[in-house]
Amino acid sequence: MMKKIFSIFVSIMIVLSVTGCSEKHKALDSQAFLGIMEDMNYKEVKTLLTEDLISDTSTVSESQEYRVTCLVFKTAEKAKGIYDTSAEAAKGLQAKGDSNFSCTESGSGNSGKLVMNGKTVNGTKYETIVRVDNVLIRAVAKENSDADIKEIDKVMKTLGY
Q1: 130: alpha, beta or left, given left = phi > 0 and alpha = psi -120 to 50?
Q2: 88 lies in which domain range?
Q3: 46 Cβ partners below 8 Å, 6+ apart?
Q4: Cα–Cα distances in Å, from 128 out to 13, 22, 86, 124?
Q5: Within a domain: 100
Q6: What's the pTM?
Q7: pLDDT of residue 3
């Protein structure tokens, strides 16, 4: 009996690992991003398109305290490179032992999420960067008060991240 239960358990684990039971995030395109942000009363601001990008859509809150950007790169490798550079810089800052800065990173496969909180050379801020395939979403608050953190977390949740 015990052997049969163990066999069933192993079979279920194999099926789950083969089918990929983890959630795979789907990248937003710039139009979907802009629609969601406009619904949240953020306004589009002009940006300059570089050769690595398909689109660069930036929005700001009415108070100008929050900026959320959607960068769609031509390749997932380029988006991953930019994300990895940001993650390395944040981890380096955290490794200096400054108790006024922290970062956490999560995700795997086609996505990653980096959350930074605290004092940097550019001042105190709260920032989240999400990468899904060839898309980077970057949300920044000028400060890191509870209200700022709640706003950025709300934006990311509304965007599906």
Answers
A1: beta
A2: 23-159
A3: 58
A4: 33, 22, 11, 14
A5: yes
A6: 0.79
A7: 47
